[in-house]
Specification:
This protein has 18 helices and no strands. The chain starts with 5 loop residues before the first helix and ends in a 13-residue tail after the last helix. Helix content is about 65%, strand content about 0%.
Length: about 475
């Protein structure tokens, strides 16, 4: 069930109505309702993998209780590693087994050996990387005594499988979400309207920006040899907008949907393309994943402490692992490595903590130097995205090679439609204007006449309906 589908348009109001009808006398049943509809939401993708989700949930629930009641460190460590091995094992089997098998076969073929290794013909369970990380953070936090285990299995199960975040995040922490799940929630009109606004902007990002950019980007990446350098360059630029509109659009819809139920999820994007260096970009892009790796991998490795070598090593590890988390393909690993290389100079020069605040705060326009910084950061990010989008490493280098020719300065063989160019300009202006808010249109029109403000929202709705025929699946569903 896609967020931008008619099924979800019927599903959400029904759940919303049933949820708040319970609030007066049956509020303790609300979590049970959300859990049931979350399982239904997941089963709509493939009901068979619902059992895997439930197994992973039950495993981590009982692991938390067993670690907390363990009489000695050895027993506690046993339960901890049992959960880690099983969770990572499932992730490895479904997502990475074929990659390792084929990579090993390719390696030994270099030495003249041939291996006929068994590969798995299975579909990757949707959302497995996200809900696995939910459970891992919970188990790790209990092991490190940062929290006590949740005794109510319904509340814990809802934390793992809450439908707005189940398929593509954000990656929540038990310390943030569980307290909200456990307390009684009251309908907040202002919060609900804010949620509807965020859903609307998320749909605009996905349906109008991402899906329409995808049409051009897919053409360039699908027939790379048929187009000149300027066309391929535009294709890379439009993929950068596609992936941002697609993933941050999903996050906006997820966060907005959750607000309808009185629950605040972690912010996942903070206007990353207005970053002035790559370190700032990674503080603003996929925040829940970046902070997860920071807290559970980077800091345990030593973080920014120790020698310069240690700092560089730790940065390289988290970016390569982050790339590998995205998919079982060398393109993702190289994408992570490129971003590590980009960020290392700021580690060496100790400028990685610069630009902690939003660019041009309380100003209408950025300064000239800030504009150059944002432009350069966007370009190198777009370069890295080529590896993220390419089918394989050879394809990525072929695409880059196609750009780096004299045809880069020629007129594009194919140019994006006028409508798409206008929508991108509108999108950039609205995002820039709203960059100091949680999402771009959170405060748009607050000083306008109510009729003008409602007209703006209706215009967005109309555009979404008129330009929704190029439907594409959300990119991060494959991770």
């Amino acid at each position: 069930m896609l967020f931008n589908s008619l099924e979800f348009a019927f599903f959400l109001p029904l759940v919303f109505f049933a949820y708040w009808v319970m609030n007066d006398r049956y509020w303790k049943c609300q979590n049970g309702l959300l859990l049931l509809v979350s399982y239904y939401f997941y089963a709509c993708w493939d009901w068979r993998f619902l059992f895997l989700l439930i197994f992973s949930t039950v495993l981590d629930y009982f692991t938390g209780l067993k670690m907390h009641s363990a009489q000695n460190k050895k027993t506690k460590k046993f339960w901890f590693w049992l959960s880690i091995i099983i969770n990572v094992g499932f992730l490895g089997i479904f997502k990475y087994y074929n990659f390792f098998a084929s990579s090993f076969a390719d390696l030994i073929s270099v030495f003249g050996f041939e291996a006929n290794l068994f590969t798995l013909q299975v579909v990757l369970p949707v959302g497995i990387s996200f809900y696995t990380f939910h459970g891992l953070s919970y188990v790790i936090d209990i092991y490190n005594e940062k929290m006590e285990p949740e005794k109510n299995i319904i509340d814990y199960s809802l934390f793992v499988s809450y439908f707005p975040l189940l398929v593509a995040g954000p990656i929540e922490r038990a310390t943030h979400l569980l307290p909200q799940i456990k307390k009684r929630r009251f309908f907040n009109y202002k919060m609900a309207v804010d949620g509807l606004r965020q859903i609307l902007w998320g749909l605009f990002k996905k349906v109008v920006i991402a899906d329409n950019c995808a049409e051009y980007a897919n053409l360039m990446f699908g027939s790379t040899n048929d187009y000149n350098g300027s066309s391929l360059f535009l294709g890379a630029i439009l993929f950068a907008f596609q992936i941002y509109g697609d993933f941050s659009g999903y996050s906006d819809i997820a966060l907005g949907t959750s607000k309808l139920f009185g629950i605040e999820l972690l912010k996942n994007f903070n206007f990353p393309y207005f970053s002035r260096n790559i370190a700032e970009f990674w503080r603003r892009w996929h925040i829940s994943l970046s902070t997860w790796f920071r807290d559970y991998l980077y800091i345990p490795l030593g973080g920014s402490k120790g020698s310069l070598y240690s700092k560089i090593r730790n940065v390289m590890i988290i970016f390569i692992v982050s790339g590998f988390w995205h998919g079982a393909n060398w393109t993702f690993i190289i994408w992570g490595l490129i971003n590590a290389i980009f960020i290392i100079p700021s580690i060496v020069l100790k400028t990685n903590r610069n630009h902690l605040d939003i660019v041009a705060k309380n100003k209408v326009l950025p300064g000239f130097f800030e504009l150059i910084q944002m432009g350069f950061t966007f370009l190198i990010t777009t370069f890295a995205w080529i590896f993220f989008r390419a089918d394989n490493v050879k394809h990525a280098f072929s695409y880059i090679g196609g750009i780096c020719t004299s045809s880069l300065f020629e007129k594009p063989v194919k140019f994006p439609s006028l409508w798409l160019c206008l929508f991108l300009l509108f999108f950039i202006i609205i995002e820039w204007n709203g960059r100091q808010s949680d999402f771009a249109i959170q405060r748009v029109g607050f000083n306008w006449n109510r009729k003008f403000r409602m007209s703006f929202y209706m215009l967005l709705v109309l555009i979404i309906f008129l330009f929704s025929e190029k439907e594409q699946q959300f990119i991060y569903f494959q991770f």
